[in-house]
Amino acid sequence: MSDDEIFLKSKKVWEDNLKLFPHTKLRYPDENLVRLMSGKYVPVPKPPAKVMDHGFGHGNNLWFLADKGYECSGCEISEALIADVNELFSKIGKPVDLRPVEGLKIPFDDNEFDIVVSWNVLHYNGTRQGVIEIIRELHRVLKEGGILVLSTVHPDSSFSDRMKDMGDGTFLIEKENPHDNRQGLSFFVAGSDDELKELFDMFSDVKTGYIYTDLFDNSERNAWYLVYAKK
Known about the structure:
Layout: H1 3-20, H2 31-38, E1 50-54, H3 60-67, E2 71-76, H4 79-92, E3 97-100, E4 113-119, H5 128-141, E5 142-153, E6 163-167, E7 170-173, E8 186-188, H6 193-198, E9 205-213, E10 222-230
Parallel strand pairs: 1-2, 1-4, 2-3, 4-5
Antiparallel strand pairs: 5-10, 6-7, 7-8, 9-10
């Protein structure tokens, strides 16, 4: 699939997701992001620094960041998710700037943010070139000295059981799953830490990490690369 086809397919999946799987709506921030933003694992700018959540989904990480005192913005492929999260922020009385993504362009200015968060999103760009273009965009919107905190799917994930290798890091989700509607999407999955780090060569400092969880069901195991990158 071309980058445009990948974008349109992903957009339809996430527009449909809220309607098809309302019970899977994420209510809590990701534990590992909470630890990274609150602990001493890596240097992170403190509130009221400006943060942008790339692909904020249900807003579960974004409201955590707002509650910590960060000035929050975000972009998302789905207008339905943007409306849903705007409603959430209205209820909690926090300001937020949410914008739609079109293609591979991030809808914010150069050198705008102290922190960019991209949590479980990068792989949806599907191809090596698409991923590289998005990383360049994330780099562009960061201020000098700003940081990118990112997670993306690892080969140990149970997604590997459902995917067909299409070459050069692109994998097609072939098998259905009763818990989601992502059959037919293309993921980009780096084969190793070194391969992943090479994609971030425009950053001055890059660190990688790893998350793995298997909550008594190997068919639903989670495995993610972590990336911390400083501009």
